[in-house]
Structures are given as structure tokens and as C-alpha cells.
């Protein structure tokens, strides 16, 4: 038997926190190992309990979810914890900063339970959760105010890798990229792996942020 995915739930609204925990604990492959209502406690509990993933709210007392995410999964953090950020629609201005802070994905709070469970399993598996239907809406709107980090001509990627990176930033899945470029999904996976390795990125979410910061997507 495979050990269940260990989840820490952090939300300052007790009703939502309890609801998430109840939904998660009802799954045989998932286990809630802790709950808390502020970012500082989330950081402390994550470091003490070592969960596989933290389901993190954004707006919380003491320490907000973005800073808590940065402390748990940001650049230079030893043994980073996977973080799935949940946000309400009217807090979407925080999503870009949450992704930059190291989150592996995000969901809207009004997502159905099945999407929450899918998101937890996806992020826990090492993949990123950046839903295609909200990629442009939540990340793309910041393209105009994100300063390019450098000249795109200096990006150490091949022409095909740049094509794949742009399609990732557009929110396309591996199967959709394969269909667009008329190549196999295995080939797409190889390109994605090369892109992440060459650019020293952790996952597809960071690839999207990189693409926007470098002016590769308009």
C-alpha cells in the first residue's frame, strides 16, 4: 500500500478550513496532518510535521499566505514544501505574487470538491496546477507591468523549445501542445524537461512566470 499524501490545511476561516479537511480526509489516498488559521503557524507546522503539500489561503492574519509560501517554497529554501494556493476571485491580484513566491499552483475557493482533490494530487505528484482557463486571466493580465528580466534573444533555448515554452505559458496541456505542434506527447515531455533544466525552473508554473517576465508572451 502506498502511504497517503499528507496535507496541511491553512485558512483563517474555520468553516472553510473544516470543509477542506473533511473533504480531504474522506479520501483513502489523502490524510490531513494539521490545520491552522494563520501563515506563521502554517510555516511552523509545516516545518514540524513535514507534510507533502500545504493548502494555503492568501489573506490571513499574522503572516499572509504569500509570505508563508515564500518561507516554505521560495528560492533558496532547503527542502521546499509543495504549496497549493487557494484564492477567491476578487483576490486574484495576489495570484501572480503567490506563484513567484514558490507556489506550485492555485485554485479558486469556489472550485468543486473534485477540483480541490485533483489539485492536491496533481501538485503532490510533482506537477504544477495552472488551469488553462485561468492562466491568461490571472497571470496574463500582469504581463504589461512585469519588467522583462532580459533580452529574449539571450534565452538559451532552441527555437522549438521556445515554441513549447510559449504554449505552456498559454496554458496548454502536454496533449494540446502535441496536437498543436504535431508531435508526440512523449516528445513534448522531453521538451518540457529540457526547458525546466536549462532555465533552472522547478515546474510549469515557474515556466509561465519566466515566459511573462522575459517578454516571451504578449
TrEMBL record:
One Pfam family per UniProt: GerE
Q: Which residues carry this modification: 4-aspartylphosphate?
A: 57
SUPFAM superfamilies linked to this entry:
C-terminal effector domain of the bipartite response regulators (SSF46894), CheY-like (SSF52172)
Q: Which UniProt keywords apply?
A: DNA-binding, Phosphoprotein, Transcription, Transcription regulation
CDD domains from the xrefs? LuxR_C_like, REC_NarL-like
Tell whether DNA-binding is among the UniProt keywords.
Answer: yes
The protein's matches in PANTHER family, at most eight in alphabetical order, are given as: TRANSCRIPTIONAL REGULATORY PROTEIN NARL-RELATED, TWO-COMPONENT RESPONSE REGULATOR
What superkingdom does the record give?
Answer: Bacteria
Gene3D superfamilies membership: 3.40.50.2300
The Response regulatory domain, residue ranges: 6-124
Q: What is this protein called?
A: Response regulator
Domain (HTH luxR-type) spans 150-215
Amino acid at each position: 500500500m502506498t502511504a497517503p499524501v499528507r496535507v496541511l490545511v491553512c485558512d483563517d476561516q474555520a468553516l472553510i478550513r473544516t470543509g477542506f479537511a473533511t473533504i480531504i480526509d474522506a479520501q483513502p489516498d489523502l490524510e490531513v496532518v494539521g490545520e491552522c488559521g494563520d501563515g506563521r503557524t502554517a510555516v511552523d507546522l509545516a516545518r514540524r510535521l513535514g507534510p507533502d503539500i500545504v493548502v494555503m489561503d492568501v489573506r490571513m492574519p499574522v503572516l499572509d499566505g504569500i509570505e508563508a509560501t515564500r518561507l516554505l517554497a521560495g528560492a533558496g529554501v532547503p527542502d521546499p514544501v509543495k504549496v497549493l494556493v487557494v484564492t477567491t476571485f476578487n483576490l486574484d491580484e495576489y495570484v501572480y505574487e503567490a506563484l513567484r513566491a514558490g507556489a506550485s499552483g492555485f485554485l479558486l475557493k469556489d472550485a468543486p470538491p473534485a477540483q480541490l482533490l485533483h489539485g492536491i494530487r496533481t501538485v503532490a505528484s510533482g506537477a504544477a496546477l495552472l488551469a488553462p482557463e485561468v492562466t491568461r486571466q490571472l497571470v496574463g493580465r500582469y504581463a504589461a507591468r512585469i519588467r522583462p528580466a532580459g533580452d529574449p534573444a539571450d534565452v538559451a533555448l532552441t527555437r522549438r523549445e521556445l515554441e513549447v515554452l510559449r504554449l505552456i505559458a498559454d496554458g496548454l496541456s502536454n496533449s494540446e501542445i502535441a496536437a498543436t505542434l504535431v508531435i508526440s506527447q512523449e516528445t513534448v515531455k522531453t521538451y518540457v524537461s529540457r526547458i525546466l533544466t536549462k532555465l533552472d525552473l522547478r515546474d510549469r508554473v515557474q515556466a509561465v512566470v519566466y515566459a511573462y517576465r522575459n517578454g516571451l508572451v504578449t
